[in-house]
Design goal:
About 55% of the residues lie in helices and about 5% in strands. By secondary structure, it is mainly α. The protein has one domain. It has a two-stranded antiparallel ribbon with strand order 1-2. The longest helix is centred in the last third of the chain and has 33 residues. It starts with 7 loop residues before the first helix and ends with a helix.
């Protein structure tokens, strides 16, 4: 991580990309265990933590929110989703179709994040010319 106000957005995008990568692994693990009796699906909630960290003040600019963000406190946390719920007799709660859709959606999100990171570096390069 780069410690300068110039890189605030890049640092947030870096953490977001890491979270999307971890979510990709978690969703892939869910798909791999779709037929494992008793397995409960897992997921991460990075977006909620980021939203909470940025705060809800509507009178503060996004730039101010991002610059005041404690980036080291943002950590994607894995949780078991619907741990008491199962629609199958083997107590597994993974729906393979839903997991595949979520995986594809997450991959699109990751690609968009990486495009944003590249654009931020292109902007910095343009400014330094």
């Amino acid at each position: 991580m780069i410690h300068s106000n110039v890189f605030d957005y890049i640092n947030v995008l870096d953490k977001t990309a890491d979270a999307a990568w971890i979510r990709n692994e978690v969703l892939s693990n869910n798909i791999a265990n779709a037929d494992t009796p008793g397995y409960k699906r897992q997921d991460i909630n990075f977006e909620g933590e980021l939203r909470r960290a940025l705060g809800n003040s509507r009178y503060t600019s996004v730039d101010a929110k991002v610059s005041g963000l404690k980036i080291n406190r943002l950590k994607p946390r894995t949780y078991t989703d619907y741990s008491d719920f199962s629609y199958r007799t083997d107590k597994n709660n993974v729906d393979i179709d839903t997991e595949n859709v979520m995986l594809a959606s997450n991959q699109l999100k990751y690609n968009a994040i990486m495009t944003s990171v590249n654009q931020e570096f292109a902007n910095l390069k343009l400014v330094t010319k």
